[in-house]
User: Which sequence fits this backbone?
Protein backbone atom coordinates (compact mmCIF):
# COMPACT_ATOMS: atom_id res chain seq x y z
CA UNK A 1 0.00 0.00 0.00
CA UNK A 2 1.48 3.34 -0.78
CA UNK A 3 3.08 5.15 2.12
CA UNK A 4 3.71 1.96 4.12
CA UNK A 5 7.13 0.32 4.62
CA UNK A 6 7.91 -2.80 2.61
CA UNK A 7 9.39 -5.94 3.89
CA UNK A 8 12.78 -4.29 4.27
CA UNK A 9 11.38 -1.37 6.23
CA UNK A 10 11.77 1.14 3.41
CA UNK A 11 9.11 3.51 2.46
CA UNK A 12 8.75 3.61 -1.35
CA UNK A 13 8.48 6.96 -3.16
CA UNK A 14 5.12 8.10 -4.19
CA UNK A 15 5.10 8.25 -8.03
CA UNK A 16 2.75 10.78 -9.51
CA UNK A 17 1.17 9.70 -12.73
CA UNK A 18 2.12 11.88 -15.70
CA UNK A 19 -0.77 13.11 -17.68
CA UNK A 20 -0.46 12.63 -21.38
CA UNK A 21 -0.11 15.90 -23.21
CA UNK A 22 -2.88 16.56 -25.56
CA UNK A 23 -1.77 16.13 -29.14
CA UNK A 24 -1.04 19.29 -31.02
CA UNK A 25 -3.16 20.11 -33.88
CA UNK A 26 -1.86 21.69 -37.05
CA UNK A 27 -3.25 24.92 -35.84
CA UNK A 28 -1.16 24.83 -32.64
CA UNK A 29 2.25 23.77 -34.15
CA UNK A 30 4.38 25.28 -36.79
CA UNK A 31 5.21 23.72 -40.07
CA UNK A 32 8.72 22.98 -38.87
CA UNK A 33 7.76 21.72 -35.46
CA UNK A 34 8.05 18.13 -34.33
CA UNK A 35 6.96 16.49 -31.21
CA UNK A 36 10.52 16.45 -29.94
CA UNK A 37 10.97 20.17 -30.78
CA UNK A 38 13.42 19.58 -33.66
CA UNK A 39 13.11 20.64 -37.25
CA UNK A 40 12.11 17.63 -39.28
CA UNK A 41 14.25 16.28 -42.05
CA UNK A 42 12.39 14.71 -44.89
CA UNK A 43 14.60 11.95 -46.30
CA UNK A 44 12.06 11.10 -48.89
CA UNK A 45 12.00 14.52 -50.57
CA UNK A 46 13.93 14.86 -53.87
CA UNK A 47 17.23 16.82 -53.76
CA UNK A 48 18.63 19.17 -56.46
CA UNK A 49 21.90 17.71 -57.92
CA UNK A 50 23.96 19.49 -60.61
CA UNK A 51 23.98 17.36 -63.75
CA UNK A 52 26.65 17.23 -66.62
CA UNK A 53 27.25 20.36 -68.81
CA UNK A 54 24.92 20.78 -71.73
CA UNK A 55 26.33 20.84 -75.31
CA UNK A 56 25.81 24.62 -75.46
CA UNK A 57 27.85 25.10 -72.27
CA UNK A 58 30.64 22.86 -73.60
CA UNK A 59 30.74 24.87 -76.83
CA UNK A 60 31.07 28.29 -75.23
CA UNK A 61 33.69 27.35 -72.63
CA UNK A 62 36.71 27.45 -75.08
CA UNK A 63 35.30 30.61 -76.69
CA UNK A 64 35.22 32.33 -73.34
CA UNK A 65 38.77 31.18 -72.55
CA UNK A 66 40.06 32.48 -75.93
CA UNK A 67 38.36 35.84 -75.38
CA UNK A 68 39.98 36.08 -71.96
CA UNK A 69 43.43 35.40 -73.44
CA UNK A 70 42.86 37.99 -76.22
CA UNK A 71 41.86 40.61 -73.67
CA UNK A 72 44.92 39.94 -71.52
CA UNK A 73 47.46 39.71 -74.44
CA UNK A 74 47.98 43.51 -74.91
CA UNK A 75 48.51 43.95 -71.20
CA UNK A 76 51.02 41.09 -71.10
CA UNK A 77 52.87 42.54 -74.13
CA UNK A 78 52.90 45.99 -72.56
CA UNK A 79 54.35 44.73 -69.32
CA UNK A 80 56.93 42.70 -71.28
CA UNK A 81 58.08 45.82 -73.17
CA UNK A 82 57.95 47.85 -69.99
CA UNK A 83 60.16 45.35 -68.17
CA UNK A 84 62.66 45.61 -71.07
CA UNK A 85 62.67 49.38 -70.76
CA UNK A 86 61.21 49.96 -74.24
CA UNK A 87 57.94 51.50 -73.11
CA UNK A 88 56.62 52.94 -69.89
CA UNK A 89 58.25 55.17 -67.38
CA UNK A 90 59.85 58.41 -68.58
CA UNK A 91 59.43 58.16 -72.37
CA UNK A 92 60.07 60.09 -75.54
CA UNK A 93 59.10 59.51 -79.19
CA UNK A 94 61.45 58.15 -81.85
CA UNK A 95 60.36 58.56 -85.50
CA UNK A 96 62.30 56.59 -88.12
CA UNK A 97 62.06 57.03 -91.90
CA UNK A 98 64.16 55.15 -94.43
CA UNK A 99 64.89 55.27 -98.12
CA UNK A 100 63.67 52.84 -99.34
CA UNK A 101 60.72 52.35 -96.99
CA UNK A 102 59.67 48.97 -95.61
CA UNK A 103 62.88 48.10 -93.73
CA UNK A 104 62.64 45.93 -90.62
CA UNK A 105 63.27 47.97 -87.46
CA UNK A 106 64.77 46.33 -84.36
CA UNK A 107 65.17 48.33 -81.12
CA UNK A 108 67.40 46.91 -78.37
CA UNK A 109 67.10 43.44 -79.87
CA UNK A 110 63.31 43.48 -80.27
CA UNK A 111 61.51 43.70 -83.64
CA UNK A 112 59.07 46.63 -83.48
CA UNK A 113 57.81 46.90 -87.08
CA UNK A 114 58.80 48.35 -90.43
CA UNK A 115 59.76 51.85 -91.51
CA UNK A 116 58.35 54.48 -91.46
CA UNK A 117 57.49 54.06 -87.78
CA UNK A 118 56.99 56.12 -84.60
CA UNK A 119 57.80 54.55 -81.22
CA UNK A 120 57.30 55.63 -77.61
CA UNK A 121 60.52 54.57 -75.87
CA UNK A 122 62.06 54.96 -72.46
CA UNK A 123 64.58 57.78 -72.37
CA UNK A 124 68.21 56.94 -72.90
CA UNK A 125 70.54 55.60 -75.59
CA UNK A 126 68.90 53.03 -77.86
CA UNK A 127 70.39 50.61 -80.37
CA UNK A 128 68.43 50.57 -83.63
CA UNK A 129 69.04 47.94 -86.33
CA UNK A 130 67.66 48.43 -89.87
CA UNK A 131 67.47 45.30 -92.00
CA UNK A 132 66.84 44.76 -95.69
CA UNK A 133 67.08 41.09 -96.52
CA UNK A 134 70.56 39.89 -95.55
CA UNK A 135 71.90 43.45 -95.26
CA UNK A 136 71.71 45.39 -92.00
CA UNK A 137 72.79 48.71 -90.50
CA UNK A 138 73.12 49.49 -86.79
CA UNK A 139 72.83 53.02 -85.36
CA UNK A 140 72.62 54.45 -81.84
CA UNK A 141 69.97 57.07 -81.12
CA UNK A 142 69.26 59.08 -77.96
CA UNK A 143 65.66 59.28 -76.73
CA UNK A 144 64.83 62.31 -74.58
CA UNK A 145 61.91 62.43 -72.17
CA UNK A 146 58.87 64.23 -73.58
CA UNK A 147 60.54 65.01 -76.94
CA UNK A 148 60.15 63.65 -80.47
CA UNK A 149 63.39 62.72 -82.23
CA UNK A 150 63.22 62.14 -85.99
CA UNK A 151 65.83 60.26 -88.00
CA UNK A 152 65.96 59.54 -91.73
CA UNK A 153 68.36 56.93 -93.06
CA UNK A 154 69.34 56.20 -96.66
CA UNK A 155 69.85 52.48 -96.99
CA UNK A 156 71.88 51.96 -100.16
CA UNK A 157 73.19 48.48 -100.90
CA UNK A 158 76.86 48.22 -101.72
CA UNK A 159 77.51 48.54 -105.45
CA UNK A 160 78.64 45.33 -107.15
CA UNK A 161 82.29 45.21 -108.10
CA UNK A 162 83.01 46.96 -111.36
CA UNK A 163 83.29 44.65 -114.34
CA UNK A 164 86.06 45.51 -116.77
CA UNK A 165 84.64 45.34 -120.30
CA UNK A 166 86.98 44.09 -122.99
CA UNK A 167 86.82 43.11 -126.62
CA UNK A 168 89.04 41.51 -129.25
CA UNK A 169 90.99 43.15 -132.06
CA UNK A 170 92.23 41.13 -135.04
CA UNK A 171 94.90 42.83 -137.16
CA UNK A 172 96.00 41.64 -140.59
CA UNK A 173 98.15 43.40 -143.14
CA UNK A 174 99.38 43.24 -146.73
CA UNK A 175 102.20 42.41 -146.69
CA UNK A 176 102.21 40.43 -143.46
CA UNK A 177 104.88 40.50 -140.73
CA UNK A 178 104.42 44.22 -140.12
CA UNK A 179 104.98 45.61 -136.61
CA UNK A 180 101.77 46.72 -134.88
CA UNK A 181 101.36 49.19 -132.03
CA UNK A 182 98.18 49.96 -130.07
CA UNK A 183 98.01 53.27 -128.18
CA UNK A 184 101.79 53.61 -128.55
CA UNK A 185 102.57 50.16 -127.11
CA UNK A 186 104.17 47.48 -129.30
CA UNK A 187 101.92 44.38 -129.41
CA UNK A 188 103.65 42.14 -131.99
CA UNK A 189 103.63 41.55 -135.75
CA UNK A 190 100.74 40.88 -138.10
CA UNK A 191 98.65 38.76 -138.31
CA UNK A 192 97.82 39.51 -134.67
CA UNK A 193 94.90 38.87 -132.32
CA UNK A 194 94.54 40.97 -129.16
CA UNK A 195 91.80 39.56 -126.88
CA UNK A 196 92.33 41.89 -123.90
CA UNK A 197 91.67 45.38 -125.24
CA UNK A 198 89.32 47.58 -123.23
CA UNK A 199 86.12 48.57 -124.97
CA UNK A 200 86.35 51.95 -126.66
CA UNK A 201 88.47 53.83 -129.20
CA UNK A 202 92.14 52.94 -129.76
CA UNK A 203 94.92 54.17 -132.06
CA UNK A 204 96.49 51.47 -134.23
CA UNK A 205 99.79 52.00 -136.01
CA UNK A 206 101.23 49.45 -138.47
CA UNK A 207 104.80 49.99 -139.65
CA UNK A 208 105.71 48.93 -143.21
CA UNK A 209 109.01 49.37 -145.01
CA UNK A 210 107.53 52.15 -147.11
CA UNK A 211 105.62 54.04 -144.39
CA UNK A 212 103.64 53.75 -141.17
CA UNK A 213 99.85 53.63 -141.43
CA UNK A 214 97.96 54.97 -138.40
CA UNK A 215 94.24 54.39 -137.96
CA UNK A 216 91.55 54.69 -135.28
CA UNK A 217 89.73 51.46 -134.32
CA UNK A 218 86.69 50.95 -132.09
CA UNK A 219 86.52 47.89 -129.83
CA UNK A 220 83.10 46.76 -128.59
CA UNK A 221 82.66 44.81 -125.37
CA UNK A 222 82.35 41.09 -126.01
CA UNK A 223 82.86 41.49 -129.77
CA UNK A 224 85.71 41.05 -132.24
CA UNK A 225 86.85 43.93 -134.44
CA UNK A 226 88.83 43.02 -137.58
CA UNK A 227 91.23 45.46 -139.23
CA UNK A 228 93.18 44.91 -142.48
CA UNK A 229 95.94 47.38 -143.32
CA UNK A 230 97.50 47.61 -146.79
CA UNK A 231 101.00 49.05 -147.18
CA UNK A 232 100.99 52.35 -149.07
CA UNK A 233 102.89 52.56 -152.37
CA UNK A 234 106.47 53.81 -152.31
CA UNK A 235 105.30 57.23 -153.47
CA UNK A 236 102.59 58.44 -151.14
CA UNK A 237 101.77 61.29 -153.46
CA UNK A 238 100.61 58.78 -156.07
CA UNK A 239 97.94 57.33 -153.71
CA UNK A 240 94.44 58.50 -152.85
CA UNK A 241 92.10 57.88 -149.94
CA UNK A 242 88.71 56.27 -149.62
CA UNK A 243 86.30 57.39 -146.85
CA UNK A 244 83.37 55.04 -146.27
CA UNK A 245 80.33 56.33 -144.36
CA UNK A 246 78.44 53.34 -142.90
CA UNK A 247 76.85 52.60 -139.51
CA UNK A 248 78.38 49.13 -139.01
CA UNK A 249 81.87 47.73 -139.74
CA UNK A 250 82.26 46.07 -143.15
CA UNK A 251 85.09 44.34 -144.93
CA UNK A 252 86.26 45.74 -148.27
CA UNK A 253 87.21 43.37 -151.09
CA UNK A 254 88.63 44.02 -154.58
CA UNK A 255 88.60 41.05 -156.94
CA UNK A 256 87.95 38.81 -153.91
CA UNK A 257 91.04 40.13 -152.16
CA UNK A 258 90.62 41.79 -148.76
CA UNK A 259 91.98 45.34 -149.04
CA UNK A 260 90.68 46.88 -145.80
CA UNK A 261 87.81 47.46 -143.38
CA UNK A 262 85.49 50.41 -142.97
CA UNK A 263 86.23 50.93 -139.27
CA UNK A 264 89.84 52.05 -139.79
CA UNK A 265 88.98 55.46 -141.16
CA UNK A 266 90.64 56.41 -144.46
CA UNK A 267 91.78 53.61 -146.76
CA UNK A 268 94.79 54.18 -149.05
CA UNK A 269 94.18 53.08 -152.65
CA UNK A 270 96.03 53.59 -155.89
CA UNK A 271 94.58 56.23 -158.25
CA UNK A 272 92.07 54.95 -160.77
CA UNK A 273 88.79 53.02 -160.96
CA UNK A 274 88.10 50.35 -158.34
CA UNK A 275 85.22 47.87 -158.17
CA UNK A 276 84.82 47.20 -154.46
CA UNK A 277 82.65 44.75 -152.54
CA UNK A 278 81.52 45.72 -149.04
CA UNK A 279 80.43 42.71 -146.99
CA UNK A 280 79.67 41.34 -143.52
CA UNK A 281 78.91 37.69 -142.88
CA UNK A 282 77.62 38.52 -139.40
CA UNK A 283 75.00 40.92 -140.76
CA UNK A 284 74.20 38.90 -143.87
CA UNK A 285 74.98 41.92 -146.05
CA UNK A 286 76.94 42.42 -149.28
CA UNK A 287 76.98 45.37 -151.70
CA UNK A 288 79.18 46.44 -154.62
CA UNK A 289 80.29 49.96 -155.52
CA UNK A 290 82.49 51.38 -158.28
CA UNK A 291 84.64 54.28 -157.13
CA UNK A 292 87.26 56.47 -158.77
CA UNK A 293 90.23 57.38 -156.59
CA UNK A 294 92.20 60.50 -157.43
CA UNK A 295 95.87 60.95 -156.59
CA UNK A 296 96.38 62.85 -153.33
CA UNK A 297 92.63 63.31 -152.81
CA UNK A 298 89.89 61.69 -150.75
CA UNK A 299 86.88 59.94 -152.26
CA UNK A 300 83.72 59.57 -150.14
CA UNK A 301 81.36 56.58 -150.36
CA UNK A 302 78.08 56.29 -148.39
CA UNK A 303 76.45 52.92 -147.79
CA UNK A 304 72.86 52.61 -146.54
CA UNK A 305 72.34 49.25 -144.83
CA UNK A 306 69.03 47.44 -145.41
CA UNK A 307 66.34 47.70 -142.75
CA UNK A 308 64.87 44.71 -140.91
CA UNK A 309 62.08 44.39 -138.35
CA UNK A 310 62.67 43.68 -134.67
CA UNK A 311 60.22 42.71 -131.92
CA UNK A 312 60.83 43.91 -128.37
CA UNK A 313 59.05 42.64 -125.28
CA UNK A 314 59.50 43.05 -121.52
CA UNK A 315 57.90 41.63 -118.41
CA UNK A 316 55.77 43.18 -117.01
CA UNK A 317 56.29 46.11 -119.44
CA UNK A 318 58.82 48.84 -120.23
CA UNK A 319 59.37 52.08 -122.09
CA UNK A 320 61.74 51.48 -125.04
CA UNK A 321 64.55 53.65 -126.42
CA UNK A 322 66.60 52.59 -129.47
CA UNK A 323 69.88 54.45 -130.07
CA UNK A 324 68.59 57.23 -127.79
CA UNK A 325 65.21 57.57 -129.54
CA UNK A 326 61.98 56.72 -127.72
CA UNK A 327 59.99 54.25 -129.81
CA UNK A 328 57.09 53.40 -127.47
CA UNK A 329 56.18 50.82 -124.82
CA UNK A 330 56.33 47.04 -124.95
CA UNK A 331 55.18 44.93 -126.59
CA UNK A 332 56.59 46.24 -129.89
CA UNK A 333 56.24 43.84 -132.80
CA UNK A 334 57.31 45.52 -136.07
CA UNK A 335 59.99 48.12 -135.35
CA UNK A 336 62.12 48.80 -138.46
CA UNK A 337 65.85 49.47 -138.06
CA UNK A 338 68.93 48.94 -140.31
CA UNK A 339 71.09 45.88 -139.79
CA UNK A 340 74.01 46.29 -137.42
CA UNK A 341 74.58 47.04 -133.77
CA UNK A 342 72.02 49.05 -131.80
CA UNK A 343 71.72 50.06 -128.16
CA UNK A 344 68.31 49.34 -126.63
CA UNK A 345 67.28 50.80 -123.26
CA UNK A 346 64.20 49.56 -121.41
CA UNK A 347 62.84 51.59 -118.47
CA UNK A 348 60.23 50.79 -115.84
CA UNK A 349 59.17 53.36 -113.19
CA UNK A 350 59.60 50.85 -110.34
CA UNK A 351 61.91 48.14 -111.71
CA UNK A 352 64.61 50.44 -113.10
CA UNK A 353 66.52 50.36 -116.37
CA UNK A 354 68.02 47.59 -118.50
CA UNK A 355 70.47 48.14 -121.38
CA UNK A 356 71.12 45.73 -124.22
CA UNK A 357 73.46 45.96 -127.22
CA UNK A 358 72.02 43.87 -130.03
CA UNK A 359 73.06 43.09 -133.59
CA UNK A 360 70.24 43.01 -136.14
CA UNK A 361 70.86 40.81 -139.17
CA UNK A 362 69.15 39.66 -142.35
CA UNK A 363 69.80 36.02 -141.44
CA UNK A 364 66.71 35.46 -139.31
CA UNK A 365 64.12 36.82 -136.91
CA UNK A 366 65.30 39.58 -134.58
CA UNK A 367 63.66 39.27 -131.17
CA UNK A 368 64.50 40.82 -127.79
CA UNK A 369 62.84 39.82 -124.53
CA UNK A 370 63.79 41.15 -121.09
CA UNK A 371 62.41 40.30 -117.66
CA UNK A 372 62.52 43.61 -115.77
CA UNK A 373 61.96 41.79 -112.49
CA UNK A 374 65.43 40.25 -112.73
CA UNK A 375 68.65 42.22 -112.29
Assistant:
Amino acid sequence: MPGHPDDLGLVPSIAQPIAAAPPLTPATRGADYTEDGLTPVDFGAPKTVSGPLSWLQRRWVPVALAALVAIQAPFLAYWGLRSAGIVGGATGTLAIETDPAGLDVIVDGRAVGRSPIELSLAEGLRSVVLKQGTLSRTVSVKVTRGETVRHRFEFVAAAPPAVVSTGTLQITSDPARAAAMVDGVARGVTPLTLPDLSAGSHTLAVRFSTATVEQRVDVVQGSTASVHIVAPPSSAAAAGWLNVDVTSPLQIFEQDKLVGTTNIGRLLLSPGVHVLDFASEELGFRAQRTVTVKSGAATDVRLDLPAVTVSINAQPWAEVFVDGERVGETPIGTLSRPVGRHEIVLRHPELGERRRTVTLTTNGANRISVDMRRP
The chain has a mean pLDDT of 78. The chain has three domains: 83-154, 166-302, 307-371. The longest strand covers residues 91-99.
